[in-house]
Amino acid sequence: GYLILCTLLPLLFFKLFKKITNKKISFYIFISFIFIPIFENMGFGYFNYVWQFARHHAETLAILFIVYSLYLLISLENDVKFQKPIYLIGILLSLSVFLRPNFFPTSLILLFLSIFFLLNKRDYLNTINVLLGYSLIFLSYIHNIYFGNSMFFFTNSSVNFKLDLHSLTDAVLSFMTLDLKNENYLILKSQLLNWNPLYNIHRLIILLFIVFSLLRKKQKLIIYGLFISMVLQHGVLLISHPSSRY
């Protein structure tokens, strides 16, 4: 079942990019994703997702759920007569977090956007349906209480975080005051180099281009939502595990 779902990921990307660009560009992106993965070290290479599946990791399935919910969300914003199963957005987002709790920030952003679009269309029934679907996220908490006798909402995530808000602030202040031997600063420096090694400087250039494109002219609300989601997800990386798997 998982293998069959993995095969749907390229098709979902094709449909997603077709929705935001055109069929021709989407086809080229589809071919690149599968056969010519020039952007694979930024997460856009199909073999990476197949490899995660082969290692029995949950990332591929969680990302598939997020991509499909994003496709539904873009359809909801753009289509005059919306016929897609909008109620699935809440379920898909909650399941993606259940599989990989580090996707919690993105799930919240996409949830808020879907609620906003639905309320703007005065579709109150589907608003309730999406919220009910997202309430499945509490399964994690119930699971931990029942099976683990613990009160953690997702997992004992504190063991995975290298920096908290206090130590992060201390690291930034140490950098500003040139206290470069500070322990928290050294941890932050190590995290930054793991997040983007110097030989991947092109990724920072692309990131700057994205920021420039965003600020150059007014964008659709979904674009701002995706940008905020990107910032939050990279924030999670910087204070936890900034490796390629995540």
Structure description:
The chain has 246 residues and is mostly helical. Helices cover 68% and strands 0% of the residues. It contains 13 helices and no strands. Helix 5 runs parallel beside helix 7, helix 6 packs parallel to helix 8 and helix 7 packs antiparallel against helix 8. The longest helix is centred in the N-terminal third of the chain and has 20 residues.
Summarize the structure.
The protein has 246 residues and is mainly alpha-helical.
Question: What's the layout of helices and strands?
Answer:
Elements: H1 2-6, H2 9-20, H3 23-34, H4 46-54, H5 59-78, H6 88-99, H7 104-120, H8 124-134, H9 139-148, H10 165-176, H11 183-195, H12 201-216, H13 221-239
The number of helical elements comes to 13
Q: Could you tell me the mean pLDDT?
A: 88
Give a count of the beta strands, DSSP E runs of length 2 or more. Answer: 0
What does the overall shape look like?
A: globular
Q: List the secondary-structure elements in sequence, H or E.
A: HHHHHHHHHHHHH
Strand content: under 5%
Largest sheet: none
